[in-house]
Amino acid sequence: MRGSVEAPMGFQLRIELMEVLPPVWRRFLVPGSITLPGLHRVIQEVMGWENYHLHLFRFGKKEYGIPDPEYPSEMRNERGRRLREFLRDEGEMFEYQYDFGDNWEHDVVVERIVTGVEVTAARCLEGERSCPPEDVGSPSGYMEYLEALKDPSHPDHQQMVEWRGPSFDPERFDLKRINRRLSLLSRSRRRA
Prior knowledge:
The protein is an alpha+beta fold. The protein folds into two domains: 10-129 and 173-191, Structural Genomics Hypothetical 15.5 Kd Protein In mrcA-pckA Intergenic Region, Chain A (Roll); 133-169, no CATH class. The protein is built from four helices and eight strands. It has helices at 36-47, 138-150, 157-164, 175-191, and strands at 10-17, 25-31, 55-59, 62-65, 76-77, 93-98, 104-114, 123-128. It has an eight-stranded mixed beta sheet with strand order 5-4-3-6-7-1-2-8. The protein starts with 9 loop residues before the first strand and ends with a helix.
């Protein structure tokens, strides 16, 4: 645990996609000053999502995201909010939800609060497995997709191969590619 005087210079987080087996997870570093919208973009890159859908963060019972005035809710606006406002100790957890239709729930754990050395950019450290394809239809839809993909005699096999192509590998994890994408994200932010 960190002392109450020293501000976090970074967070080492572990995110895991819920209800998917075998587990899909990532361990990554983010700057202590990262905003919730910035964290959303980092999560999209480390997990392999394509940022097509809405998202929210849940800290206890409070939700933060992009409120829609046409659908009143208790969701609070994430703009201008920094991750360090919500986290005090190592071991704390929060949730990230992506794509309210497919309902991809992620648990995020603070593994380490970095002090003394500034973390200037997000970086993925390790992980396992590919993120499900966008719009595959929820965790159960993904499990059905994998079943159809690996069994050429499955009635939906050909349709699934045509939909996403034959190259999807659920076991693939490309750390270098993820970090290249994070580097591009970081550079585009500095220019903005």
